[in-house]
Amino acid sequence: MRLRKFRVQGYRCIHDSGEIKVGDLAAFVGRNESGKTTILEALTLLNKDTKLSDLDLCDEMTEELKSEIKLAEGDFVLNEKETALIREKFPNLQDIRTMKIYRTNKHPRVQYDFGEVKISGEASKRLNSWENFVDRIKSFVEAMPNPIRIRVDTKFLSAPPPRTREVFMDMMAEFNNNIYLLASQEPQIISEWKNIYQDLESIFDNMLIGTNERSALDNFIEDKLHPRFVYFSDYKKILGNIDLEEFIRETKGIRAKGLEYVEEFDKAETVNNLFYLAELDAQKLEEAQNSPSRLIKLLHTSSRRLSERLNPAWKGDPIHVELRWNPGNVLSVVISDVHRDGTVTNTGLLNRRAEGFKWTFSFIVNFAAETQKAELKEAILLLDEPARNLHPAQQRGISDLLKGLAGSNQILYATHSPFMIFDYTQGNLLVVELDKRRHLSKIYYDYWNADDQTLIPILYGLSRGLVESIVDKQIGFNSRPVIIVETMSDCMYLNAFDRFLKDPNLSMNPLNIVAAYNKNSVMSLAIFYKNHGYDTFILLDNTEESRKIASELQSNEFKSVQMVFFELSGQPKLFIEDLLMDDDYLYAVNQTYEVRLRKEGYVTLTKDQVLSKGKKSIIDNLNEIWKENQHLGWEKFDREDICRYICEKIVLGETDFLSDKTKDQFRSLYRLIAERIRQNQNLGIQSSAAGNR
How far apart are CA 442 and CA 601, in angstroms? Predict the structure, then answer.
């Protein structure tokens, strides 16, 4: 049974999630305290044994909660096997392929809605139900002669329905003995009882609970088919040495007084999971300590099992886990790295390892054990931050683990990590955002409309293709040249003016333009592209800082021809903005800052006002004007705001403010880039020819 849609209302910070579609492996992404954990916990309300607390009800919905509302509801799709099971028990019903399960604030149990399927609510004697079976036994007893009837023990008929075949058969065997003991001389009674008793096994196999078709169906679904929501939240860390006496006391609920102690040994569950994976019993381990050979064999076998069960989820070189017995009933967890050539290194106690390693190890132990304990199959797993504190490589290991479990289970999980997002289809990536004004969560699956801050991990995840294009050399050797630019503004100007000029001989189309995150990342990004086969160029500001970058690039085997500085007619220009005529650029500045400038007494900034600052670049001159007016709240001049304005006007075709001189100066930049590409290609051809001689 798979969850396909859900809705949460009136639960903690969720006022109304709306109807949310989910896939088989769905990630919830959102900022801290947006409500991701609340969503997962709300879905556990659909478990048949979950208890609802009044503290979980939404404080802002007191009035609405006076009436009955569905706190959590889910639309489920049944598989063919589940539909067939219902058909076998209820042959008169049309096939049930979907159902809604919900829990309200007024009813203690989960409830079911089968849509348009017609189900009778009237009592029916035709049902093979426990209630009808009880009535049949009562009728049989009531027909006995009074001296026998009053001695028959029928207390079991008023007990709850038996939950297992064994309980049922034991109960009826005892009743059978009672009948033969009291009525052995009454052939009529014995004959009637034989007719009932001979069909007991088939009666139990097909027995339902309920007085009518509707109640019997509800009870059958709850008992046999109700989906399980399994929630994983806190993953505690294992330390290197385990005090077995302390652990055994803890597992028995015997705790020393004091909060400090409770926090210190709040890892008993995790140690128990370690023992579970190793198939190791602490009591048997203590018993074996007086027999060295038996102890060695037990620990060796357990260590091997543990290593085998942990390595499938462990990325990088495999590890070997060894459990060692020490005096004082202390069990040590010793970890070794196993390399591809078979060598084993770095053997030592787990608590000698880095915190991230210990956390990763503990998480995998917990998750692997809990999933195996639950015998997870056709369950709905709810995981809160499963990749917390993990290195990206280990996160990929956890994602592989989730994908494996998703074959027979449905998985919903909350994450902040781009490395844990691997399915971008609607329903498999859900965004959670917080309405700060009302402190209520909103959930939706059209994640591209999310708040920019919420989108950050999603966008980083979507950019993994770009990373792969860098590290795959075959892609690099077969791709267009790359030009690295220092800022996003450089990238926007190059693309916008390329569109504006419409000159196929000077187009940027033969190039991939890649914007560095900042100046500090230009060199490393360029080296990555070059090392992976790309014909790489770098477009640099004509500043001292950028010249240092060029010097570092040359020391990393970049040729001078691959580095392009802004210039005009052989004269250096500091920034790309210096390729625009001053009047053209100031028009954009005045339009962008119109309100602020007028408020402070400037009708517009003129060219003379700007040039009077005496700097080498119009950007430096504007920065100086803004600095002088900081006391008036001007803050800092933002080049990107002006870039956005100019590029937007180019897209809209509103470019009358751009002069022919500005167009010519950008053409000269494109000619310079094209010439450098040709020069580098010629150098490559000459180098190849020289190597073939």
Answer: 45
For the chain, percent of residues with pLDDT exceeding 90: 38
Going 549 to 552 to 553 to 558, the CA torsion angle's sign is positive
Residues forming beta bridges with residue 540, ordered by sequence position: 565
Rounded to whole angstroms, how far apart are CA atoms 426 and 419? 18
Q: How far apart are CA 111 and CA 163, in angstroms?
A: 20
User: What pLDDT does residue 265 have?
Assistant: 41
Is it the case that residue 260 has pLDDT exceeding 50?
Answer: no
The sign of the dihedral angle between the CA atoms of 163, 167, 173, 178 is: negative
End-to-end CA distance of the chain: 70
Residue at token pair 């008992």: 223
Residue 388: Cβ-neighbour burial (10 angstroms; 0-12, 13-18, 19+): middle
Least trusted range by pLDDT, from 338-342, 478-482, 549-553, 596-600: 596-600
Q: Tell me the per-residue pLDDT of 114-129, one tens digit each, with 9 for 90 and over.
A: 999 988 877 666 666 7
The whole-angstrom separation of Cα 583 and Cα 590 is 10
- More reliable by pLDDT, 372 or 588: 588
Task: Name the strand (E) or helix (H) holding 242.
Answer: strand 241-243
Phi/psi for 7 (5° steps) reads -150, 135
* Per-residue pLDDT at 263: 37
**DSSP sequence for 92-135:** TSPP--EEEEEEESS-SS-EEE-TT-----SB-TTS-BHHHHHH
The partner residues of 337 in beta bridges, in order of sequence, read 319, 345
Cα-based angle 521, 527, 531 (whole degrees, multiple of 5): 150
Strands lying side by side in the sheet with 429-435: 228-232, 379-384, 410-415, 25-29, 429-435, 440-444
- pLDDT at position 654: 94
**Owner of token pair 């590890």:** 319
Work out the mean pLDDT of the chain and round it to a whole number: 85
Whole-angstrom distance, CA of residue 488 vs CA of residue 511? 16
Instruction: Give the pLDDT confidence score for residue 376 in this predicted structure.
Output: 53
Cβ partners under 8 Å of residue 5, min gap 6: 19, 20, 21, 22, 74, 75
As a whole number, mean pLDDT of residues 71-84 equals: 95
Q: CA-to-CA distance for 115 and 119, rounded, in angstroms?
A: 10
| Contact (CB, 8 A) for 467 and 396 | no
Nearest-angstrom CA–CA distance, 673 and 294: 76
Look at phi and psi of residue 346 and say left if phi exceeds 0, alpha if psi is from -120 to 50, else beta.
left
Name the token pair of 432.
């959670």
Q: Which residues, in sequence order, are CB contacts of 13 under 8 Å at separation 6+?
A: 35, 38, 58, 434, 439, 440, 441
Helix ranges (DSSP H) in 235-267: 244-251, 259-264
More confident: 357 or 98: 98
Contact 643/489 with Cβ under 8 angstroms?
Answer: yes
Dihedral angle sign, alpha carbons of residues 163, 166, 169, 172: negative
Q: What percent of the residues of the chain are helix, what percent strand, and what percent coil, each to the nearest 5?
A: 50, 15, 30
Q: Which residue has the tokens 């004007």?
A: 625
User: Does pLDDT of 15 surpass 70?
Assistant: yes
Residue 143 and residue 679: Cα distance in Å, rounded? Answer: 110
CA 635 vs. chain centroid, Å, equals 39
CA 597 to chain centre: 47
Which of 394 and 425 is assigned the larger pLDDT?
Answer: 425
Q: Give the C-alpha distances (Å, rounded to integers) separating 289 from 251, 293, 327, 425, 429.
A: 20, 9, 10, 55, 52
Helical residues (DSSP H) of 390-448, grouped into ranges: 392-405
